[in-house]
Design goal:
Number of helices: 8
Binding site for ATP: 39-41, 97-98
Main location: cytoplasm
Order of helices and strands: EHEEEHEHEEHEHEEEHEHEEH
Structural class: alpha/beta
CATH architecture of the largest domain: 3-Layer(aba) Sandwich
Radius of gyration: 20 Å
Strand content: 25-35%
Strand order of the largest sheet: 10-9-8-11-12-13-14
Domain Ribose-phosphate pyrophosphokinase N-terminal: 6-121
Largest sheet: 7 strands, mixed
Function: Involved in the biosynthesis of the central metabolite phospho-alpha-D-ribosyl-1-pyrophosphate (PRPP) via the transfer of pyrophosphoryl group from ATP to 1-hydroxyl of ribose-5-phosphate (Rib-5-P).
EC number: 2.7.6.1
Oligomer: single chain
Shape: globular
């Protein structure tokens, strides 16, 4: 049995998910007060003792600036309250798309966030489906990188699609698509897109045959839904029977909800790593709570995390 008490706390970004995680784990969320001054300055304070405890802080860094800084302040408060071990659960890791210098004179935001979390006092980070898996190497502390495929694959199987083909909405996602395809012994097609700038597509073409197939597009993030919508329309034009999308993180900014509603997608399957703001008949939400709860148990009991990747 673990020698240190375990306490779970939530930031303001993903309170509903944190409640589900705590319930699945078998504990209540701890009391934390996230107050703000009139100018927006954040002041977190723990309303119970955490001295000597193994603390788990749950906060996605969607709409990243305030939520990220709130998380950093929570970490600092836990450190100064003499927590024994500070585990940071970031279901959605914001700034992960800025993982390299893809043009001159730009920041590497993902590395900066890793540095900030470590400097604040985090001992371990747990996250899900990073935009680029190599971001784990930006940290000098342990990173548990959970895979949402263990949630998505059973759901896709439950659909009973007869002519299943897995698709990637861009060249960069082909590796992720192939990982999904191996669970179904399915073929993979790729949408080759060219961008004018971020969130704006210039052109797209399909590599592979989609005629008569039930297509499932695989991606880690759905932001404006422009890529998925354009890919779905092109796939249907090429003779596909149906097209769905699987995306771990439902960022859904701008006109994303309207874009999805007006698209050729039968449905888009997402997780609750980011709260979905609007209900839609085309958006299916699968919960990550049980998976994170199991990961907390395994971390606390020094058990293998890789056991959670088995499907």
């Amino acid at each position: 049995m673990p020698s240190n008490p375990v306490k779970l706390f939530s930031g303001s970004a993903t309170r509903t998910l944190a409640d589900k995680i705590a319930k699945s784990y078998g504990k209540e969320l701890g009391d934390i007060n996230l107050s703000r001054f009139s100018d927006g300055e954040i002041q977190p304070s723990f309303d119970e003792s955490i001295r000597g405890c193994d603390v788990f802080l749950v906060q996605s860094t969607c709409q990243p600036n305030d939520n990220l800084f709130e998380l950093l302040m929570m970490i600092d408060a836990a450190k100064r309250a003499s927590a024994h071990y500070i585990n940071v659960i970031i279901p959605y890791f914001g700034y992960a798309r800025q993982d390299r210098k893809d043009k001159p004179r730009v920041a590497i935001g993902a590395k900066l966030v890793a540095n900030l979390l470590t400097a604040a006092g985090a001992h371990r980070v747990m996250t899900m489906d990073l935009h680029a898996a190599q971001i784990q190497a930006f940290f000098d502390i342990p990173v548990d990188h959970l895979d949402a495929a263990v949630i998505f694959v059973p759901y896709i199987k439950s659909l009973g699609l007869e002519n299943l083909t897995i698709a990637s909405p861009d060249m960069g996602g082909s590796y992720r698509a192939r990982l999904f395809a191996k669970f179904f012994n399915a073929e993979v097609v790729i949408c080759d897109k060219r961008r004018k700038r971020a969130n704006e597509i210039e052109s797209m073409s399909i590599i592979g045959d989609v005629t008569g197939q039930d297509i499932v597009l695989i991606d880690d993030i759905c932001d404006t839904a422009g890529t998925l919508s354009k890919a779905a329309a092109l796939i249907m034009e090429k003779g596909a029977k149906s097209v769905r999308a699987v995306c771990t993180h439902a960022v859904l900014s701008g006109n994303a909800y309207e874009t999805i509603e007006n698209s050729a997608l039968t449905e888009i399957i997402v997780t609750d790593t980011i709260p979905v703001k609007k209900e839609s008949s085309k958006i299916k939400i699968l919960s990550t709570a049980d998976l994170f709860a199991k990961a907390i148990t395994n971390v606390n009991e020094h058990a293998s995390i890789s056991e959670l990747f088995k499907i």
